[in-house]
Amino acid sequence: MRLSLDVTAVPAQPVGAGQYTLQLAAALAARSDVDLLLVSRRADQDRWRTIAPMTRLVAAAPEARPLRLAWEQLRLAALLDRLSVEVHHGPHYTMPERSRVPTVVTVHDMSFFEAPQWHERSKVLLFKRAIRVAARRAAAVVCPSRVTAEELARWCRVDAEVFVAPHGVDTARFRPDEPAPGADAESLARLDPRLVQDRPLLLFVGTLEPRKDVPALVAAFARVAGRHPDALLVVAGGRGWGADEVDRAVDSSGLGSRIVRTGYVADEDVPALFRSATAAVYPALYEGFGLPALEALACGVPLVTTSGTAMEEVAGPAAVLVEPGDRAGLADALDAMLDGGGSEGDASGVDRRRRGFDIVAGHTWEASARRHMAAYRFAAGDPAPTGGVGPGPQPVG
């Protein structure tokens, strides 16, 4: 299959959807049944030549997002025609609307519809329109979870075939054991000296934005901090839109000296953070998938996350679940973890850890790429869409 993949939206410090695009590109490049073409920004070609050195690359898009989005609509369709690709994949909500090449679009989540107050207004307008266009005009839409696929059908007219392709996790990096003796301590010391003081650590990893509900985590930690005077809360992630709410929560907690804020953490240091944690805590109100939850399970770390969300779909019985926004329930879960609820001496914790490894075994990037291939083949005209869940309001199966 001659496939083009738009990688123009991947930032210099990728998280979430950016990591998805990176990992998918690498997994597709490794397949013998794909002739992959990457379409990148002009200034970003060196990175992609490192990630997929044997893959064709066209570095044509401008750097600034407004110009890049205009370029996608005005120039990309003609470029795809000249390159003779069979299918094009837009992995970040948008597609070249005039393209004659069948297009697959990834819709990561429906938060622009479900809770637009969590985003800048300009993004809400842009992505709501892009999702509606993809649902009507793409050959296929990929969603990372059943939750997202069901929400897409609830909010939009869906004429495209919908495929659920869960994310994977890189178990070469995210694993229970450190790659070499002392490697984790070296990573942690670079981030903050307090992380190598053999203290209980509660860890959040993710961009600081409203739907992650980090203020609720700070408030829950404040409720139990007195009972666990050695414990630290580690908030690891770059600042997103609305991060000022996190600043105010930390300031009002009176626990600034016990809340370690690392900022954005480089890919190579994230597994060390997970392995050092007493528990990973991902209290997001909403996610399309929740990759940090899967990464925590891969590292064998006890996980606390939210029920009724994509994280429950992913982690299920391997996690301790609390209602989204329930600060008292979250505090009780943190208290239990700090009391040893996820330790090797706790039977329920041992069972959750085992279940977590079973879940991780089924969530590889190679498996995710296979699910994407089903969407690509359908877009190219395969009459039997292996694993599609159908267009419109059909149930996700």
Describe this structure in words.
The chain has helices at residues 17-29, 45-51, 65-74, 76-83, 111-114, 121-137, 146-155, 183-191, 214-224, 244-253, 270-276, 291-298, 310-315, 327-341, 347-361, 365-379, and strands at 2-6, 35-41, 56-61, 87-90, 103-106, 140-143, 161-164, 201-205, 232-236, 259-263, 279-282, 303-306, 320-322. It is built from 16 helices and 13 strands. Helix 2 links the parallel strand 2 (35-41) and strand 3. 49% of the residues are buried. It has a seven-stranded parallel sheet, with helices on both faces. Helix 9 (214-224) packs across helix 14. The chain folds into two domains: 2-168 and 364-379, 3-Layer(aba) Sandwich (Rossmann fold), CATH 3.40.50.2000; 183-361, Rossmann fold. By secondary structure, it is an alpha/beta fold.
Number of H- or I-type helical stretches: 16
Order of helices and strands: EHEHEHHEEHHEHEHEHEHEHEHEHEHHH
Estimated share of beta-strand residues: 15-25%
Total count of strands: 13
**CATH-defined fold name of the largest domain:** Rossmann fold
User: Percent of residues in helical segments?
Assistant: 40-55%
Task: Walk across the major sheet and give the strand order.
Answer: 3-2-1-4-5-6-7
Indicate the low-confidence ranges by residue numbers: 391-397
TL;DR?
With 397 residues, the protein is of the alpha/beta class.
What are the SSEs and their pairings?
Layout lengths: L1 E5 L10 H13 L5 E7 L3 H7 L4 E6 L3 H10 L1 H8 L3 E4 L12 E4 L4 H4 L6 H17 L2 E4 L2 H10 L5 E4 L18 H9 L9 E5 L8 H11 L7 E5 L7 H10 L5 E5 L6 H7 L2 E4 L8 H8 L4 E4 L3 H6 L4 E3 L4 H15 L5 H15 L3 H15 L18
Parallel strand pairs: 1-2, 1-4, 2-3, 4-5, 5-6, 6-7, 8-9, 8-11, 9-10, 11-12, 12-13
